[in-house]
Design brief:
The chain is 58% helix and 1% strand. Helix 11 runs parallel beside helix 13. It has 554 residues and is mainly α.
């Protein structure tokens, strides 16, 4: 039974065959799939191996996520955990003030107010803001933060900012007018008390009227400014309202998010917030797909996650992410893009170990073997031509590449020159030592000898040598470092080697327990025992799932 079946595991009658129940579950599998979808580059379809951002909340994303839900009269899915996240963040600000900015303080104060949470030390935060103002010019965020603190200093700072406002015929001026008017009103001023208010207001209205006549030429942020001005000035113009809503809809992406660029592949939580804000200003409808998008960014740890603006994929992490999705019996999102990306990378790949991973991933994506063979064959032939076996004495990992070359050629039906095979067989056999291991001529380092032994056994059995040796089995078992052989990759090679010799694997239950300790609660396995949410890796996950398969767990 495939490892995919493990994920869909249900209770079955007791048999002699062990099961993986308790190691992974449908919920764990769903989390892995969901987080891989979030970590994917929308342009190429590839992955870069970093999935930590798909679980760890950030203050920036939480600010935009919580406020966007509030605009829709919705609450976070994990309010208590979000409160805990905010209080922890507040503690970090007290302990590491040099690391934070007034932007962080503003977001935190806004969210604490949203959740009706009290501040631990108002004086510390106020002093932080004042010190920051000394280092730089006063800004809207300084004033708004002071207002949120109910500081008596807010009034003077807000007025100072207003007095610095320069009149100009631009929507940027309109935005600044709205922002600074908000500060003054929140600080306790009435319009009659604001110097030069009538002139500034008339100019803002004139700019608005002129911009309203060319809405189709405006960008995302200018549309937001018009929407806010209409709301705050109570301007009733149904034609204009519909026109702005129609133009904002052009920035909507297929997943329900919004971008600030027309035709973008993916939107972001901040631009989605601003789009939803503009739509609600105008009394428009926000789709359920946008709500689903927002919900998809909520972390089970509380708060919201932040998707990077740029994900730079690499072929190896992409290949293993695809194979992991395959093992979990899940479809690969943006399949055609992933396929094109990996086919392009495979055509230039030189290392057989990478060729194997990329070709296997493309096979998961449904690319026929014959098509893959045409691409892979010249790449493997090029490796054979350039390989100098004596280089193994300086780089034992070349043996791993020879193993993957043989596996790939067998699976794709690529013929390898028999004389070359004989040369490799003789070379590898010459590495064998009296204790059953291989590679003492290469290195006396224990882990290097173990890896050399594993690769050598696998090469010999791929070549059809039929290598069986009790001393080698004993050597491999004696080099076990606890439940595993040093690491997940080496453990997998050890199991492959033992299986290829038909040897019994001792202590399977201990290996499974070691894997359980490396299982992250919200999807993925990590290379080391789980300690914090940052852990989790697509390649480590593939290795763990494949180890379960090699152990015969179903």
């Amino acid at each position: 039974m495939s490892v995919a079946a493990i994920v869909a595991l249900t209770k079955v009658p007791h048999t002699e065959k062990p099961t993986a129940q308790g190691v992974i579950s449908p919920s764990w599998g769903n989390w892995t799939v969901r987080r891989l979808e979030l970590a994917q580059d929308p342009v190429t379809g590839g992955w870069d191996g970093d999935v930590s951002f798909t679980i760890l909340p950030t203050l920036y994303a939480t600010y935009h996520g919580v406020l966007t839900l509030a605009l829709l009269n919705l609450s976070p899915a994990h309010p208590q955990k979000t409160r805990e996240f905010l209080k922890d963040y507040e503690g970090e600000i007290y302990n590491r003030q040099d690391y934070f900015s007034v932007v962080d303080v503003y977001y935190l104060l806004t969210l604490l107010k949203e959740f009706n949470l009290s501040l631990g030390s108002r004086e510390t935060i106020e002093n932080f803001i004042l010190e920051d103002m000394k280092k730089s010019n006063e800004t809207f965020l300084h004033a708004k933060s002071l207002i949120l603190l109910n500081s008596p200093l807010a009034k003077n700072v807000s007025m100072s900012l207003w007095l610095s406002l320069k009149p100009e015929h631009s929507l940027n001026f309109v935005w600044n007018f709205l922002q600074l008017r908000e500060l003054l009103v929140m600080s306790g001023y009435s319009p009659a008390e604001i110097p030069n208010y009538t002139r500034m207001h008339e100019l803002a209205r004139t700019v608005f009227d002129d911009a309203s006549r060319e809405v189709n030429n405006l960008g995302f942020y200018d549309l937001h400014t018009l929407a806010r001005f209409m709301k705050e000035e109570n301007i009733k113009n149904e034609t204009l309202r519909r026109e702005i809503l129609a133009d904002i809809s052009k920035y909507k992406c297929s997943d329900g998010s919004y971008s600030d660029t027309n035709g973008a592949k993916r939107g972001y939580i901040d631009t989605t917030h601003w789009a939803v804000e503009a739509i609600t200003y105008l009394g428009g409808e926000v789709g359920t797909d946008t709500v689903r998008y927002l919900r998809s960014l909520e972390s089970p740890l509380g708060g919201f996650i932040e998707i990077p603006y740029s994900i730079i994929p690499n072929p190896l992490d992409t290949a293993f992410s695809v194979m992991t999705l395959g093992l979990l019996n899940s479809t690969v999102p943006r399949e055609e893009k992933v396929k094109d990306y990996l086919l392009s990378e495979l055509s230039d790949e030189d290392k057989p170990s990478a060729i194997w991973a990329e070709y296997r991933a493309l096979r998961v994506l449904g690319v026929p073997n014959e098509n893959l063979k045409k691409i892979v064959k010249p790449r493997l032939q090029n490796f054979i031509t350039n390989l100098n076996l004596s280089a193994v004495y300086h780089n034992h990992y070349l043996l791993k590449d020879v193993y993957y070359l043989l596996v790939t050629s067998r699976e794709l039906g690529i013929e390898i020159d028999e004389s070359w095979k004989e040369t490799v067989t003789s070379f590898v056999l010459d590495l064998r030592d009296d204790d059953g291991g291989f590679g003492s001529k290469i290195s006396k380092i224990k882990i290097v000898r173990l890896e050399t032994t594993l690769y050598s056994v696998l090469i010999l059995n791929e070549l059809g040598y039929g290598y069986r040796d009790g001393k080698t089995v004993k050597f491999i078992e004696s080099n076990r470092n606890g439940a595993l052989w040093w690491s997940l990759p080496i453990t997998r090679y050890a199991l492959l080697a033992l299986n290829s010799m038909g040897a019994k694997v001792e202590g399977k239950e201990e290996i499974v327990k070691a894997l359980e300790r490396r299982k992250c609660p919200y999807g993925f396995f990590s290379y080391a025992p789980y300690e914090n949410p940052k852990q989790g890796d697509p390649i480590a996950t593939f290795l763990a799932l494949d180890i379960l398969r090699l152990l015969g767990y179903s």
